[in-house]
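Table S5 (text form). Sequence records supplied for joint modeling of the two-component complex.
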Amino acid sequence: MELVGKSNKKRKKIKHWIPFYIMGLPGMIYLLINNYLPMVGLQVAFKKWDYQKGMWFSDWIGLKNFEFLFKSQAFRITRNTLLYNLTFIIVGAILGISVAILVNEIQSKQFKKIYQTIILLPFLMSMVIVAYLTYAYLSPQTGYINNILEAIGLNRISWYSEKKYWPFILVFVQQWKTIGFGMVIYLSSIVGISKDYYEAAELDGATKWQQIRTITLPLLKPTIITLLILQVGQIFRSDFGLFYQVPMDQGSLYAVTDTIDTFVYRGLMKTNNIGMSAAAGFYQSVVCFITVVIFNGVIRKVNKENAMF
Amino acid sequence: MYRESRRWRIGAHIILMFMTLLALLPFILLIIASFTDDQVAVINGYRYLPEKWSLSAYKYIANEAETIFRAYGITIFITIVGTAVNLFLTSLLAYMLAQDELPGAKMFNFLVIFTMLFNGGLVPTYLIYASTFKIRDTIFALIVPNLLMNAFNIILVKNYFRFSLPKELFESSRLDGASEFQILKHIVLPLSKPIMATIGLMTSIAYWNDWQNGLYYLNDTKLYSVQNILNAINTSVQFLATNSVSGANITDIPTTTVRMAIAVVGILPIIIAYPFFQQYFVKGITLGAVKG
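The corresponding structure-token record, covering 601 residues in total, follows.
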């Protein structure tokens, strides 16, 4: 009797869960198509791509694609991706924290809101728009900067073909677009710091600078570390829009603008080098996975709440 | 002490005014460039104070209004449909994952989180959508790939369902005989408006700004969204400008001001709407920063 009761209960239980499975099904199907099939599809990196046969039936060729990749641009695209991301992370943290501290100093609510809103505006724009704005300044013929250069008697610069300027341009543009993002995040932690600390410090005669060094920055440390580690975990992924749109895909600039993502895109869509492109993509996916897992482990140690898993 | 904090405040105002100016000046140049006389722009370049103002760029656009309207129609359509389907899929899946005792819950959670760690990347994604699902040159190309749902939002919503809603409410409704779909629709979602609004806003912005799906999957210019049109103009003028470095003359291109005017038309609605959703945008960013 007891046994029957138990299995009845179990059946009831399963029946109870069926609606939930139905609810989760569409989302899981989407993840299967959008995320899991491409993971399986990474095998194309080990195949000789053939349009007729498609990605599941092309012939295996072992590591050939990777040989080509590492003989050609692997070093260049890896170096560019890492160095740019590292610069973005460091400069972004410094600027983001500075602006957040300054906004926090503002007493007037209206001004505070105006500053925040406008500084965040570029973050709302797509990279296509950012490319237009950059072009308005850098266009060799009609750009604002060349006008100024000419007006003060200097030579015009053909911005879109001289690569030496691009590391600075890209860092400037990236920071221009994302500084508001850093500001918002750091400000949200600064606002959470109790006013009592500052009042006590003021009574002790601490200067503003001392207050920032001894109160604000130490209390921001968890946020700073978390954000840094999260960003470092993604260091092998570049912002495709930034590196594709802003330099307008100029071949003469590739030495300093080509990253893993733009390289993969070009191989797939422009130069029809799908094997090498797939190899570069595979290389990126794997290295990304390793760094994300490592740095997530680091986050778990530092601040468990912020770990992804 | 008082004087010091006053000095600080004035310093902060000066630096922040400089920053706001820096943020705004490119947009101002873009707008002024679009109202500049084309000939003047070609000769003098883009300036903050052009010698001659003109509406000719906008007159040109008015003649091309059909293209622009169509592109706007597509942008609005994909933004609404994409966001609606995104919220639908996300809330349903999050509701399933929020059930701790559900058999297999751990595995499903892992399957969701794993997509944030490992990712097939562009090549296999493109090949699967383009050749297996034949998505090229259909409206689905702008809606389905990558933007329709993401693991991060699912976890955000799941945690909201789990920790921010009173558990007793579910239990009593279940006892009253309500189905799970009814509970989700009539109890959970109305109580989850803040998180759904934030995620909905961030998703809408992602669809509104997206140009990559169009770049990968569209040849048919009739399906171009506003961003795709802007991207196409950028690419073709870029092509001419590149050649002109080696001899050809860019003054033959009448698009010096028109391209700027189209960009203005492209960003105007979002700039006008921005002050109204700014606080939710900020909230979306801070929510996203805690994780991810």
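Note: Residues 2-41 of chain A form the longest helix (40 residues).
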